[in-house]
Amino acid sequence: MGKLDENASTIILLGGYFVFSLFGFGGKKRSKLGRMIDRNGYSQEELREESGVSRNTVSKACNDPEYVPSPNVMKKLMKAIRKLDPGAKVDDYFDV
């Protein structure tokens, strides 16, 4: 398995065939938050459970680089993020 870069797909060789993950490769790039959870082996579902926000909101926050959550949602997400990155600041993950 080899990582192309943090915005591209992971290539996995299975039985002589290349399989590309859904993280990019012709699709949208992951947001800063999405790349961070990928790097830390954290799933969107775990972020959803930890933050208490909806699946749709977590998906948008992880996949839409232009998404800026409401102040209430941002507070919940940042509380969960700081469990992985205690020094995290809002502008590390969102363009505010």
Relative strand content: 5-15%
Mean residue pLDDT: 81
Q: Distance between the terminal alpha carbons, to the nearest Å? A: 35 Å
Structural class by secondary-structure content: alpha+beta
Amount of helix: 40-55%
- Read across the widest sheet, the strand sequence of neighbours is 1-2-3
Q: What assembly state would you assign to the polypeptide chains in this entry?
A: single chain
The geometry reads as globular
Q: Count the E strands.
A: 3
The rounded Rg comes to 14 Å
Low-confidence stretches: 1-14, 17-24
Spell out the helices and strands N to C: EEEHHHHH
Sheet with most strands: 3 strands, antiparallel
Helical region count? 5
Write a concise keyword list for the protein shown above.
globular, 45% helix, alpha+beta, 5 helices, 96 residues, disordered N terminus
What does this structure look like?
- By secondary structure, this protein is of the alpha+beta class.
- The protein is 45% helix and 11% strand.
- The protein has a 3-stranded antiparallel beta sheet, with no helix packed on it.
- Helix 2 (44-51) crosses helix 3 and helix 2 (44-51) crosses helix 4.
- The protein has helices spanning 32-39, 44-51, 55-63, 71-84, 90-93, and strands at residues 2-3, 10-14, 17-20.
- It has 5 helices and 3 strands, in the order βββααααα.
Reconstruct the topology from this structure:
Blueprint: E1 2-3, E2 10-14, E3 17-20, H1 32-39, H2 44-51, H3 55-63, H4 71-84, H5 90-93
Antiparallel strand pairs: 1-2, 2-3
